[in-house]
Amino acid sequence: MKNFLLPDVPLLEAGPAPQLPKLPRQFRLCVWNFQKSKNPHWRQDFLSLCAQSDLFLAQETRLDAPCTEAAEQSGLHWHAAISFLSPRGKIPTGIAVGCRAPAQEVIFDASVHEPLLTIPKLAMRLIYPLEQSQLLVVNMHAVNFSSLAPFKRHLEKAAELAASFPGPIIVAGDFNTWNQNRRDELLLMSRKLGLQEVVFQPDLRTRYWRHTVDCIFTRGLQTLAASVPDIHSSDHRPLSALFRLL
User: pTM for the complete prediction?
Assistant: First the structure.
């Protein structure tokens, strides 16, 4: 792989032991692209969001020493799927999911590559115990600098991770839907899986070329509240939502 290194261990864990045996019937989710935690205010904002969240889906997670230390203080137990190691420091970078409950299953797909950089783009599936049920979570950082065909293939891979699961589902992340064609393909995938998109009012999500790129889709959950916290320590604003099991 030119300019990048593949990790020997594609899945890593960080953070304290899970605090709860299962997620409660009502729980709060945060979704945030970290922008590799470059901003000096990132740590403070991250820990504040973690304190309010039971489940956290992160993209562009760069697991250097400061990020790992923050994960240990977050109150959440983290699973990270590693896309590549940085050329200089060999620092793992990918996507991650943190939760107060233990994951019963963790798998990921890295079969679709970013065409220009040739690095794997990830979709990650986790199953968590939930009151009277199980919750399937798919965290995705979609292929970006590509034609529509690789983007569609990546959505199909993410859909395969969620297909046939009978219980409640969350599919969320940075989908890189920066034009209407990409947005249409994402909505088509959500309809095939029977998902509903979480609506934000006011919708203050980050936009690229006037299109939102960060989304949350659910099935089997009632959305009690959804907001976009006023946080700017990344080039993506975080998403926050409160859910209740139907």
Answer: 0.96
